[in-house]
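From the pipeline queue, job 12 of 40. The input is one protein chain; the requested action is below.

Action: predict structure.
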Amino acid sequence: MRTADAAAVLAAASARGESWLAPDEVAALLGAYGIPLAEQRVVGSPEEAARASESMGGELALKALASGLVHKTDAGMVQLNLEPAGVLEVAEDMNRRLRDASLTPGGFVV
């Protein structure tokens, strides 16, 4: 257990005034306590999500990121059981729906 590392992650988020951790901060926090995560990649666009999915292979999950988007599942911004060939279309649709909800798309977690 690396409590100093965990405290540093939380302090950095707090200093920014954030009440929610970014995906990389969640991974660092859980890693500090030895909690494993499934392989994931944070990407900035639908095209990058498609490329990441191709290199990862298998069934994938896709989660949209946007400032102000907290309940991603309730908003339909999490899709499970995707094959790599379907990721681009789903990611583009998520971005379109975020913009329709007046949110700025911030990337994806694959």
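Job complete. The mean pLDDT is 91.
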